Amino acid sequence: MFNDIGALEVVTLVVLAVLVFGPDKLPKVIQDVTRTIRKIREFSDSAKADIRNELGPEFKDFEFEDLNPKTFIRKQLDNDELGLKEIRNGLDLKKEMAELTDAVHGRESASSSSVSSSDSSGGSSSGATGGSVDMTKKREIEERPPYDMDAT
User: Fold this and answer.
1) Is residue 117 part of a domain?
2) Per the UniProt record, which residue ranges are transmembrane (predicted)?
3) Which of 1, 114, 129, 133 has the smallest number of Cβ neighbours within 10 A?
4) Is 130 a member of any domain?
C-alpha cells in the first residue's frame, strides 16, 4: 500500500505526529486509527463476499482487480486465446508511422525507394500518365510565415 514512502518520510510523519498529538495521546490515536482501518477492511471484504454470492457460481473466479482497465487489458494480452501476441509481434508501428510521415512529407522511405527504382527501370510510371500524384518525388520545402504571438 505504501510502497513509495521512504524512511525519511516515515521519520518525518512520526515526529509530526508526536508534535501534533503529544507523547501522551499518541498511543490512543494510533489505536483508533488502526481500529478504523481494520473496520474498513472488514466492511470491504464483506461487501466483496456479498457481491460474489449475488453474482452466482458462474462468476466464481471473478476478481475485483479486473475492474481496473489496465489490469484487465494486461490480463487479456497475456491470454493467448485470441492470438494477440502474434498480431502484436507482427505489427511494427514505428516503421509504419515512419513510412506514413515520409509519404506525407514527400520523402522516399526505404520500402518506397525500392519500389520506385524498380518502377523507373522496368516499366512505365503510372504517376506521370495516370493523373495521380507521385508521392516519391521530393517536394520543395515551403518557408513558413513568421509566428505572431499577439495573433494567438
Assistant:
1) no
2) 6-22
3) 1
4) no
The one-letter amino acid at 146: P
Distance CA 6, CA 17 (A): 17
Mapping DSSP to helix (H, G, I), strand (E, B) and coil, where does residue 5 land? coil
Domain that holds residue 102: 68-106
Question: Measuring CA to CA, which residue among 109, 142, 105, 112 is closest to residue 127?
Answer: 112
Instruction: Indicate whether 2 and 46 sit together in one domain.
Output: yes
Q: Is residue 116 part of a domain?
A: no
Kindly give, in sequence order, each residue whose CB lies less than 8 Å from that of residue 60, ignoring residues fewer than 6 positions away. Answer: 52
Same domain (yes/no): 8, 54 = yes
Structurally, the chain folds into a number of domains equal to 2
With a CB cutoff of 8 Å and minimum separation 6, the contacts of 64 are 48
The predicted model gives 94-99 an average pLDDT of 84
Check residue 126 and give its pLDDT.
42
What is the reported pLDDT for 66? 74
Instruction: Of 104, 137, 132, 105, give the one whose Cα is nearest residue 120.
Output: 137
Q: Is residue 131 part of a domain?
A: no
